[in-house]
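Protocol step 4 of 6.
Sequence for GntR family transcriptional regulator (Microbispora corallina) entered exactly as in the expression construct, tag removed. Do not edit the line below.
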Amino acid sequence: MTALRPVSAVEALAAALRERVLSGDIEPGAALPEQELSARYGVARPTVREALAVLVHEGLLRRERNRSAYVPVVTAADLADLMYVRRPLEELMAEAVAGRRVAAAEAALDRLAGLPPDAPWADVVAEHMALHEALVAAAGSPRLDRLYGSLAAETRLGIVGLRHVYEDRHELTAEHAGLLRVIAEGTPEEARRAVGEHLRWRES
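Step 5 output, structure tokens:
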């Protein structure tokens, strides 16, 4: 029998705030004053402070001296630069993984496809990230894994901005199903080209 680990108030609050940030409920640039969060969630300010620190560490929030934590704004220029860095990393992955099925990525796709229409966008973000991270992990390079992981927070925040573009989530699922199919069945060059096309952010 596996014992369930109790969730602390800090973890619970961090999870609630994380979902709101990744669902777009808390808009980019919005501040998260400790006193307001304490009152809203009925927890002590030290609990709020610790929960915010968790999200700052994850890169989902930023904090500056004498200023409340806030959601960073990911601009079009930020996204362009993010893709500039992500593309060669994922192209390396594509060349390494081409001709193979990646079970963990397929499982993430299945979970993405199975999300109900009213699921929070944060769940979409989580499965999207799980799919791409599984592909990178399948390349078998710890350094590639670490480099890709360093971009995770900005990538997640960037995907938040796509929630209005993919109002029909089946379209997002279909795009990733096509990507996995090319990677599994194509040549390294075909897989590389498919990844390059996939990493073109659509305008919202």
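Step 6, annotate. Residues 3 and 11 are 18 Å apart (CA to CA).
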